[in-house]
Design goal:
The structure holds two protein chains of two kinds. By secondary structure, chain A is mostly helical. Chain A has helices at residues 4-27, 35-53, 55-62, 69-86, 109-135. Chain A contains five helices and no strands. In chain A, helix 1 (4-27) runs antiparallel to helix 2 (35-53), helix 2 packs across helix 3 and helix 4 (69-86) runs antiparallel to helix 5. The longest helix of chain A has 27 residues, at 109-135. Chain A is elongated. The two termini of chain A are 17 Å apart. By secondary structure, chain B is mainly α. Chain B has five domains: 1-263, no CATH class; 300-518, no CATH class; 519-557; 558-708; 709-768, no CATH class. Chain B has helices at 2-18, 32-42, 45-49, 74-97, 104-123, 127-145, 152-183, 188-193, 195-200, 204-218, 227-230, 236-245, 247-262, 266-288, 293-314, 317-348, 364-378, 384-397, 403-425, 445-463, 466-480, 497-515, 520-527, 534-556, 561-581, 598-616, 620-640, 644-665, 677-703, 709-722, 727-735, 737-767; strands at residues 54-61, 66-72. Chain B has a two-stranded antiparallel ribbon with strand order 1-2. Chain B is elongated, with a radius of gyration of 36 Å. Classes of the chains: A mainly alpha, B mainly alpha. Chains A and B meet through helix 2, helix 4 and helix 5 of A and helix 28, helix 31 and helix 32 of B. Chain B: GO terms for molecular function: antiporter activity. Chain B: It is found in: Cell membrane; Membrane. Chain B: Its main location: membrane.
Chain lengths: 136, 768
């Protein structure tokens, strides 16, 4: 599968797809999208890259084992859920900033939670796929 | 009182922290605990004597009606004094017996635990608490029986004892819960007042059945008796403490305790008399053929327990009194004989009665204790055993038309028991001393004083029964019998029939002792019937059961993923088909198809073609690609029905699934056929049925009126409450955020599982 066209395309596709996945993540609260789909798209981006250039190349791009993303994402999700506790509110109560931030839009704990999901999903998918393709 | 009961557990719990300091002489602090407890409980003597039971109440789990209520009455007092009193002696004895043992501190800790459980058992007024302590005795005795855990035989008998008594425990719990439900209370005191109502309840049969199983397993009644001889693998102090005086009497305690509540009905009396009689005869005759000192004692203990069950079953005043007295008589002489057997074993290294003789010349005090105990066991005047035996005959003689049969059974049992007692308590000490025992010497006083004390008590109580008549036996009698008659213990009744029977027993037993010499030959003759014994049968049952489990597991848990799927789908299909067989609610009407669009038809056609490709393709890659096509078609259907979020997710998931499949399949060898035709037909039939059923089920669901309350709530409140316009996402991250958190955690665990499974395999391959 290592054709020149695929190789060239994949190196452009990778940043584009990742940007797209972030876009999907951010718009999730108002329009179709969200952390789960976003995470899947981002992982597909890496998988395509690894198909075209080999697993080792992709590994050097990511620089660390994707497994590390799992606890990081879980931590973000839990912190965003636990944050209201410090303000005397129930676990996972939505907290929101008063004004929207340009480009990103409304920022609240739900967005951080979704980001956590996004990171966990990338970590899980890449861990599974990389492990399997290494083993075989 | 609660501190007194729990002190054993507390002491046992702190032992591990001081273990290095408790190995040597410091372990002498352990006997202080039963000594203190004995003093404490003995201080209640005057109160109990005046018929004034001591009650204590602590809340535990009030919502279940379970509390720590303790009550000390005549029956409890006898047991408590036996537990702590014999406990003191056994604890001292242990110090010398186990001297220098590596784990003596551990042994003491187990003994303390056991003592505490026993105290709790006989003092509990709440039947659930009683059950808990009951189980604790089983568990702590497991550790004690299996104390020499490096011997397979020791482990095996510990396991056997635990499984039998544990099984009984289950039944007991069932009985207790039934009793509590029927009687409306878990307190024994309150149950006493509703005794008549319980007896006339239709569940009464179940209650006593469960209770009996519990008591029979614990007190080693036929056919559950076989764990007790096995438990003789334990160190002798354990056999003395558990298997003569305390634990095996727990079942007797239970029966005696519930006798005023549940007793005096046809089934109660006849069952107990029958089982008790069978046990006492069976075990007494068995005892004749044993060669091992502890084996003889074990069987004679079983027989004695049978007598007790038998007496409680008779249920008359005389019988209950006889039972009460015999509990004490038996505890005194049997504990002595066990301790003596322990000393003999400890000093000579053998317990074979055919070898032992003449030891009286080298260890006179021990011989004295053994002979005194054997005489009390024989029921020779003026020993306490004589008083006990008289009472037994008195009880059987007055039992109407059955008097002759019952008395006969009691006499035969007593003759055999007498023989066993003489064999264990007298035979090793008389005759000529073999040369190889020439160097045997008297052990430390800590070992021979305890049996001597116990044996002398048997004589003292016999000579002066008034010592315990009013203080111990009368309160005991009033707590198990409903009639409040006065009792009188007498050594001398005059020359009457009962005295004649006693003498006959004595003479016949002694004759038997002189005539019947134990020998290997006799022992082997008796062994011919071993295959019929319950122990063997249970062994066969256990092996058969484990074999059955192996076949069962091998059949269902065969490790082939495809078989698991077939089992699950097949089971589900049968279940669903059965449910739908009872009637289908929906009807297919023509107007249902009016709104079908061209797009939908096209997509469905694509799916159908892909399915054919997936199933019939000879290349795995083609099959996987077709599967992907089906997935994408489903995405399109989601889109048509305005679920873009779902469609997006499905799309990405499908892409990744295909990639994963390709990754795996790429490395598999290329087959042209994947499975044989019959298997494919079987799988095809199964999947067609399953698919059909799911389709029918879906139509059924749609046929039901739809409840849109929840979805409307989400739709209305998504923006106002959670500031989001995409309802699906708001549900995921806000309304049901907790679920999502759980899901990503599960996913993380799954990823870890895949990672570690594959990596581990990789490592093991690399090693090779």
């Amino acid at each position: 599968m290592k054709t020149l066209i695929f190789k060239t395309a994949s190196s452009y596709l990778l940043p584009l797809l990742i940007l797209f996945s972030i876009f999907i993540l951010l718009r999730g609260h108002y329009l179709p999208g969200g952390g789960f789909v976003g995470g899947l798209i981002a992982s597909i981006a890496f998988v395509i890259h690894s198909f075209a250039n080999g697993l080792e190349k992709t590994r050097t791009i990511i620089k660390f084992h994707p497994g590390f993303l799992i606890p990081v994402g879980l931590l973000i999700a839990i912190i965003s859920g636990a944050a209201p506790l410090f303000l005397g509110q129930n676990f996972m109560t939505g907290l929101w900033m008063d004004d929207p931030i340009p480009v990103i839009g409304m920022v609240g704990t739900a967005l951080f939670f979704d980001t956590g999901v996004y990171i966990v999903v990338i970590g899980i998918t890449l861990t599974i796929i990389f492990t399997i393709s290494e083993t075989l | 009182m609660i501190i007194a009961i729990l002190s054993g557990f507390i002491l046992a719990a702190i032992v591990p922290f001081f273990s290095p300091y408790l190995k040597k002489n410091a372990s002498l602090i352990f006997p202080l605990l039963p000594l203190l407890l004995f003093g404490y409980f003995a201080s209640f003597f005057p109160r109990i004597k005046n018929g004034d039971p001591v009650s204590m109440f602590y809340d535990w789990v009030p919502s279940f009606g379970v509390d720590l209520s303790f009550r000390l009455d005549g029956l409890s007092l006898l047991f408590v004094l036996m537990i702590t009193g014999i406990g003191v002696l056994v604890f001292f004895y242990t110090f010398s017996y186990m001297k220098g043992h590596e784990y003596i501190d551990r042994f003491y800790a187990f003994l303390c635990m056991f003592m505490a459980s026993m105290l709790g058992l006989v003092l509990s007024d709440n039947i659930i608490t009683l059950f808990i302590f009951w189980e604790l005795t089983s568990i702590s005795s497991f550790f004690l029986i299996g104390f020499n855990n490096e011997e397979p035989a020791s482990r095996k008998s510990a396991l056997l004892a635990l499984s039998i008594t544990g099984l009984g425990g289950f039944f007991l719990l069932a009985g207790m819960i039934l009793l509590g439900t029927v009687g409306g209370s878990y307190s024994i005191q309150e149950l006493l007042s509703s005794s008549e109502a319980i007896k006339s309840n239709s569940l009464y049969g179940g209650i006593i059945f469960f209770l009996f199983i519990g008591a029979f397993t614990k007190s080693a009644q036929f056919p559950f008796h076989f764990w007790l001889p096995g438990a003789m693998k334990a160190p002798t102090p354990v056999s003395t403490y558990l298997h003569s005086a305390t634990m095996v009497k727990a079942g007797i305690y239970l029966l005696a305790r519930f006798s005023p509540v549940l007793g005096d009905t046809f089934w109660w009396n006849s069952t107990l008399v029958t089982v008790g009689a069978i046990t006492m005869l069976y075990a007494a005759i068995h005892a004749l053929f044993r060669l091992d000192l502890k084996g003889i004692l074990a069987y004679s203990t079983i027989s004695a327990l049978g007598i007790l069950v038998f007496l409680i079953g008779l249920g008359t005043d005389e019988a209950l009194l006889a039972a009460g007295v015999f509990i004490l008589v038996h505890a005194l002489y049997k504990a002595t004989l066990f301790l003596v057997a322990g000393i003999i074993d400890h000093e000579t290294g053998t317990r074979d009665v055919t070898v032992l003789s003449g030891l009286g010349k080298v260890m006179l005090p021990v011989a004295l204790a053994g002979i005194l105990a054997a005489l009390s066991n024989a029921g020779a005047p003026p020993f306490f055993g004589f008083v006990g035996k008289d009472l037994i005959y008195e009880a059987t003689m007055q039992y109407g038309e059955w008097a002759v049969v019952l008395t006969g059974a009691a006499i035969v049992t007593n003759i055999c028991l007498l023989f066993a007692g003489l064999l264990a308590g007298v035979k090793p000490f008389i005759g000529a001393l073999p040369e190889k025992f020439g160097k045997v010497h008297l052990p430390s006083p800590l070992m021979w004083v305890p049996p001597l004390i116990l044996a002398s008590l048997g004589l003292v109580f016999g000579l002066f029964p008034s010592l315990i008549e009013q203080s111990l036996i009368q309160p005991l009698f009033s707590s198990i019998s409903k009639s409040g008659t006065e009792i009188h213990l007498k050594l001398w009744h005059g020359f009457n029939l009962i005295f004649g029977l006693s003498m006959t027993t004595l003479i016949l037993g002694t004759l038997l002792f002189w005539k019947l010499k134990p020998s290997k030959n006799l022992f082997q003759k008796a062994f011919r019937f071993e295959f019929l014994s319950p122990e063997r049968l249970v062994g066969h049952f256990a092996r058969g059961f484990s074999g059955f489990a192996r076949i069962w597991t091998g059949f269902f848990q065969n490790g082939y993923l495809r078989n698991y799927v077939i089992t699950i789908l097949g089971f589900l299909t049968v279940l669903l088909a059965y449910r739908l067989y009872n009637g289908i609610g929906f009807q297919i009407k023509a107007e249902m198809f009016e709104n079908v669009t061209l797009y939908e038809i096209i997509v469905l056609l694509i799916m159908a073609v892909s399915i054919v490709f997936t199933v019939f393709s000879t290349s795995r890659l083609v099959a996987v690609a077709s599967l992907g096509v089906i997935g994408y078609s489903i995405c399109l259907i989601f889109l048509f029905y305005s679920a873009p979020d779902l469609a997006m997710t499905q799309f990405s998931i499908d892409t990744l699934t295909v990639i994963l499949f390709v990754l795996v399949i790429y490395n598999l060898p290329k087959y042209n056929t994947f499975s044989s035709t019959p298997i494919r037909i079987r799988d095809g039939i199964l999947s067609v049925f399953f698919g059909l059923l799911i389709a029918v089920l879906t139509l059924e669901v749609l046929n039901e009126p739809l409840n849109r309350e929840t979805s409307e709530f989400y739709a209305q409140n998504a923006y106002t409450l959670a500031k989001g316009k995409n309802v699906v996402n708001v549900i995921l991250v806000d309304f049901r955020g907790f679920d999502t958190l759980g899901e990503i955690s599960v996913l993380a665990i799954a990823a870890l599982g895949v990672f570690s499974l594959l990596k581990l395999r990789l490592k093991s391959i690399e090693k090779e």
